[in-house]
Amino acid sequence: MTTIAVTGHMDLTDDTVPLVQEELRSLLREHRRELVGVTCLARGSDTLFAEAVVEAGGRLIVILPSQDYRQAKVKPDHAPSFDRLTAVAEVVTMPYDTANREAYEAANGELLKRADRLVAVWDGAAPSGKGGGTADTVEQARSAGVPVDVVWPSGARRGA
């Protein structure tokens, strides 16, 4: 069994989405046997990864940062995908009432604790200093000895 977690940017441009989807599908094909995907299911990269895991026939685990995550953070345009994917996943909710930086950092820690590998849909930018972002999670994974596969296809861009 291979457990692959994901971290990645939420603000991918419309043109970038199919590029990332294809690279994720290709990467997951290498790990098809007994694949387990772990995600916090944020919009963007996390959701694209979750869809690719389900499409590949893998088992999906969703780590929610807080009790109020669905109500407080899932925007109406992301809700259908979020609800469809959580319906087929094992959902683990962190012991926080409110979605905040501490809850996100704890969720990322839980994600990495479960991971054999980390896929990072990441443009390589340095950490923002806020904590809990893509670059921070990549740094934590590397520090913990978790192999990191960076997915950033040629032509990929982030939105404003």
What can you see in these coordinates?
InterPro entries: YspA. This is DNA recombination-mediator protein A. It comes from Streptomyces yunnanensis. With 160 residues, the chain is an alpha/beta fold. It has one domain: Rossmann fold (3-Layer(aba) Sandwich), CATH 3.40.50.450. Helices cover 39% and strands 19% of the residues. It has six helices and six strands, in the order βαβαβααβαβαβ. A six-stranded parallel β-sheet has the order 4-3-2-1-5-6, with helices on both faces. Strand 5, helix 6 and strand 6 form a beta-alpha-beta unit. Helix 1 packs across helix 2. The radius of gyration is 14 Å and the shape is globular. The mean pLDDT is 94.
Task: Write down the CATH topology.
Answer: Rossmann fold
User: Over all CA atoms, what is the radius of gyration?
Assistant: 14 Å
Strand order of the largest sheet: 4-3-2-1-5-6
Give the averaged pLDDT, no decimals. 94
CATH class: Alpha Beta
Our estimate of the beta-strand percent is 15-25%
Task: Offer a concise description of the structure.
By secondary structure, the chain is of the alpha/beta class. The protein has a single domain (2-151), classed as Rossmann fold (3-Layer(aba) Sandwich).
List keywords for this structure.
160 residues, alpha/beta, Rossmann fold, 6-stranded parallel sheet, 6 helices, 6 strands, globular, DNA recombination-mediator protein A, YspA
Protein topology:
Blueprint: E1 2-8, H1 16-29, E2 35-39, H2 45-55, E3 59-64, H3 69-73, H4 79-87, E4 90-93, H5 101-114, E5 117-121, H6 134-143, E6 148-151
Parallel strand pairs: 1-2, 1-5, 2-3, 3-4, 5-6
Helix pairs in contact: 1-2
